[in-house]
Design brief:
By secondary structure, the chain is mainly α. The protein contains 2 helices and no strands.
Length: 96
C-alpha cells in the first residue's frame, strides 16, 4: 500500500511539472527565456570570436614586422658581401 501511494504521488508531481511546462510554452514565457539564454550564448561567442580575430591580426602584424626586419638584415648582409667582393676585386686588380 505504501508503494502505490509513493507511485501515485510521484506521478502527480510529474503531471504537475509537465502541466507547468506546457503552460510556460503556451504563454510564450519559455520561448522568451530560451531566446534570451541563446542570445547570451551568441554574444559570448561573438565576443570570443572578436578577441580571436584581434589576436590573429596582431600575430599577422608581428609576422609582417619580423619579415621586414629579416629582409633588412639580409639586404645589409648582401650589401656588405658586395662591398667585400668589390674590395677584393680592387685588391686583386692592384696585385695583377
Amino acid at each position: 500500500m505504501n508503494s502505490s501511494f509513493e507511485c501515485i504521488s510521484t506521478l502527480q508531481y510529474r503531471l504537475k511539472a509537465a502541466e507547468n511546462q506546457i503552460a510556460a510554452f503556451k504563454s510564450e514565457k519559455k520561448y522568451i527565456q530560451m531566446e534570451a539564454y541563446y542570445q547570451s550564448i551568441i554574444r559570448k561567442q561573438e565576443t570570443r570570436i572578436k578577441a580571436l580575430e584581434k589576436e590573429v591580426e596582431r600575430a599577422h602584424a608581428e609576422t609582417v614586422t619580423v619579415r621586414n626586419y629579416w629582409i633588412e638584415v639580409t639586404d645589409d648582409f648582401d650589401k656588405e658581401c658586395e662591398e667585400k667582393l668589390a674590395k677584393a676585386d680592387k685588391d686583386l686588380i692592384k696585385v695583377l
